[in-house]
Structure formats: C-alpha cells, structure tokens
C-alpha cells in the first residue's frame, strides 16, 4: 500500500524532501530493514500499469509514533511524495492504494 505522508527530516539523510519536489519514499519498518535501502531506488507500479522510480529516503515507522500527531504506519506500507502520486496517477486523498515495488 502507498500513503501520501512524507514530513520532517528523512531518516536516511536528515533532509526534508517534500520541499525539494523529488520522487522519494519512506518504507515501513520491515522493508526499511535498518536502512539497507537508504539512497537506493525502487520501481513502483500501480495497478493501472504506471511505473515510477523513487529514491528511498526514510522509514515509515511501523512500531510507534515518531511525532505525537502521527500514528504508526502499518506493515508493508510505502509513504510517498506528492510527485510519486502524480507520476503514478494515484488519487492521494483516497487513502492507501495498492502498488507493487522492487529494487531497481
């Protein structure tokens, strides 16, 4: 599932990527795997067939809140920048949306 929630400095490099209009994602804790994919690109495919390559910049914490106003994300979730949603032609206000992904 992909969510549109990227905020604050990324865990990989400390940069607030939403201000840079980049194709970036954060992976849920299990997929983040201790940062082993930091800086690497993943290919995301929506079920409409659109694909985009996005850079892994952080962790979508599945085990607890990073901030008081943000609940933990679920397992097997990608948080994505608005640019990723646009490239995949996903509607970001329609909640989590199913996608497939692989490391490029």
UniProtKB/TrEMBL annotation:
Belongs to the kiwellin family. It is found in: Secreted. Pfam families: KWL1 (PF24300). PANTHER family: RIPENING-RELATED PROTEIN 1, RIPENING-RELATED PROTEIN 2-RELATED. Keywords: Secreted, Signal. This is Uncharacterized protein. Signal peptide: none annotated. The keyword Secreted applies. One of its GO terms (cellular component) is extracellular region. It comes from the Eukaryota. It comes from Acorus calamus. The keyword S-adenosyl-L-methionine does not apply. The lineage of its organism: Eukaryota, Viridiplantae, Streptophyta, Embryophyta, Tracheophyta.
């Amino acid at each position: 599932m992909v969510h549109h929630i990227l905020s604050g400095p990324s865990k990989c490099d400390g940069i607030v990527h939403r201000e840079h209009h980049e194709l970036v994602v954060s992976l849920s804790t299990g997929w983040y795997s201790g940062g082993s994919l930091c800086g690497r690109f993943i290919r995301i495919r929506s079920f409409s067939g659109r694909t985009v390559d996005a850079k892994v910049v952080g962790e979508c914490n599945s085990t607890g809140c990073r901030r008081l106003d943000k609940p933990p994300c679920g397992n097997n979730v990608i948080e994505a920048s608005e640019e990723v949603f646009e490239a995949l032609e996903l509607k970001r206000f329609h909640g989590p949306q199913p996608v497939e992904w692989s490391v490029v």
